[in-house]
Amino acid sequence: MTVTRTICLGFMAVIAIGAILLMLPFSIAAGTWGDFTTALFTSTSAVCVTGLVVVDTGTYFSFVGQVFITLLVQIGGLGYMTATTFLLLILGRRFGLREKMAIQQSLDRRGMSGVVSLVQSIIAVTLIFELAGAILMIPVFAPQYGISRALWLSVFHSVSAFNNAGFGLFPDNFISYATSIPINLIIPLLIIFGGIGYQVIMEMYLWLRDRFMRSQERVVLSLNFKIAIRTTLFLLIAGTIALLWVEYANPETLGTFTLGEKILLAWFQAVVPRTAGFNSLDYGKMSDAGLFLTIVLMFIGASPGGTGGGIKTTTLRVLSSSTATVLQGKEEVICYQRQIPMSLVIKAIAVVFGSIITVAISTTLIAISDPDVGFIRILFESVSAFATVGLSTGITAGLSTFSKLVLILTMYVGRVGVLLLMSALLGDPKPTKINYPEENLLVG
Q1: Which of its termini does the chain have fewer beta carbons within 10 Å around, N or C?
Q2: Could you state a single Gene Ontology molecular function term (predicted)?
Q3: What is the domain partition of the chain in residue ranges?
């Protein structure tokens, strides 16, 4: 039982327990036993913080069922090992080397020093952001639903947004709040901070603290911070402009709104592919160009260490810097005056290649099982599942049982990670002292 297998099986166990809980009569609004496929799909979507649904969450599940979904989203957003560590901390258990190795690998950290304190910081940051989001959204929902209902709506959507899950309790998601300025600010900010990574948030906090306290010793921002922040800002700005451009005259999406409302809607739709599947427009009515742009944004996803999926912003930057290195005729990959190790370049290539293969297999299997569905919609659904986004053009509920099982596996692979899953299946790599002769071949 290797560390990677522990993590992968841990996610499976949480999904299985969640599916059982969501099948129970008191989890269903009608008070009857739930359908197994629906429960399994919803549990996987919650634990994998995806947000794809085959039923309306707000009407199909009871309040208890919605609480279970919230807990599953929280566990999935934190990560299996982080959630387990937090539970062990509450119980007062001490950590051995194996537990620290598992936490270190799940959080993708280089060393094992300070992993327990890091978990405590992650829990604190999560609670602060979710609590702040819930408090800010109460005035938005209270006039229509009353204080008690508004409180639950705010908590549910705050947890869902910060964990980049995309689960909503409204039948039309946030289409009814498409022009609400508070919703278009609070939800995107929760998504951005949740997906940008805990390490980046902590560095940002320390940097701001030193500036305000006028400390003599200034925090030196890491390369990960610079890449995550700048790539995220670029994708948000470029995504907003691109979606505004391709959907500007579409009467089914942005065409009927004022210029200010169009910018607001384009901003929201540029943020949610980062990977939280909320929507304030009907993606089923979006143009093919708009869908393809969203697919690209979803595939890139969030940043490492956050609650989002995708290949990650750092992977994109490493590959783009590698391409620039080749075009410039250099041999070292340089980014912000720092040399990127070749092992990271190889890892980035493996992540992208494995991700493309996973999406290609998922899309092909669904296309075979549901040939009547358009290709762009199937590709959209597959990328949304793999990148744990949750956006949909409305085809999820109508897919065959086989296609739903394919999406379940795709969500699982996307959440645990292609490389981590392959490592769990193949076992830890064995060192070798053999060096093979080098030989060139034609590429490109």
Answers
A1: C
A2: potassium:chloride symporter activity
A3: 3-426
Burial readout 89-127 (b: 16 or more C-beta within 10 A, e: otherwise): eeeeeebeeebbbbbbbbbeeeeeeebbebbebbbebbe
- Residues 6 or more apart whose Cβ sits within 8 Å of residue 339: 332, 333
- Quick check: helix, strand or coil at residue 28? strand
Task: Tell me the C-alpha distance between 29 and 130, whole Å.
Answer: 26
3-state secondary structure of 169: coil
d(CA 161, CA 192): 9
How many alpha carbons fall within 13 Å on the CB side of residue 329?
0
DSSP string, 170-231: STTTTGGGTT-HHHHHHHHHHHHHHHH-HHHHHHHHHHHHHHHHT-SSPPPPPHHHHHHHHH
- The span from the CA of 321 to the CA of 332, in Å, is 10
3-state secondary structure of 24: coil
Task: Compute the distance between CA of residue 429 and CA of residue 298 in angstroms, rounded to an integer.
Answer: 31
